[in-house]
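Meet today's protein:

…
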Amino acid sequence: MTNGFYCEFIQPEKQIAEFVENIGMFHNPSDETKEVVVLPDGRIDLFFMKTGSEPFITILLGLETEAEQRSIPPDTIAFAVSFRPLAVEYILCTPIADLLNSGKNLNDDSWNLNDDDLKDLEIFTQKITAKIRARLPETVDERKRRLFELIYSSNGETSVKELSEKTGWSSRQINRYFTQQFGLSLKAYSTILRFRASLQHIAEGKLFPELNFADQTHFIKEIKKFSGVAPKELSKNKNDRFILLSVLKEK
C-alpha cells in the first residue's frame, strides 16, 4: 500500500475458524500519519497496538454501522484478531452492545500480551491462537451456530423469517439476542454483510448490483450509506484510504 503503510492477514486454523475470521497486522513505519476509512464489515476487532514511545494498549472494537475516518500515527504497529459474532458470547464472554460504532481499552493483562509480541505475525498468530484455543467452550448452542452459518453463506440475504424456520429459533428471540449481544438487529447485521460482499464485486470493477438489490439506485444508496461515497469513487480508492477494499483487490 502507499506511503509505506503495510498490512497482512492470516487465515485461522480450523479449530478456531468458527470464532475467528482472520488474524492480521497493520504497520505505519513512516513519519507521516496515514489517513484511512474503516468500513462496516460485520467483525469484532481486538487490537494490540504500540505507537512510538507511547504505552502498549489493547483495544476491543464493536461492530460498525457506518464508515469512520481514522488516523494511524507515525511509527505505529498493530496486531489484530478479527472475531466473528459467535465469539462475543463464547470467547470474549462479554456483550458488545455498548460498543456499537465505538471501542474500549482493555486491561493490559487481559490477554497477557505486550509490545514484545508485536514483532512477527506468524509468531503472534501461534501465540494468540493458543490463547483462543484455551478459551474454547465445551459446547455451543447449535441454533446459534446454524444461524451464523446461514447468515454468512448467504451474504446476509436470507430473511429473518427463513432463518427462524431453519434454526428453530423464533424471530423475536433472535432479534433479542442480537440486540443484547451486539447492539443491533439481525436485519441490520445482515445488511452489513451484504454491503461487505458487494465490496468484493466493486474491487473487481463491477459497479452494478450482483446481489439481491431492488435496482441500481438501491445499490448505490446502500453503498453510499455504509461507505460515504458512490460505488465508482469507492472503486478508485484513492491513496488506499479504504483498507478493506485494498485488501480485497489484492486477493
About this structure: The mean pLDDT is 90. Strands lie at 6-10, 20-28, 34-38, 44-51, 57-61, 68-72, 76-83, 103-106. The first helix runs from residue 86 to 92.
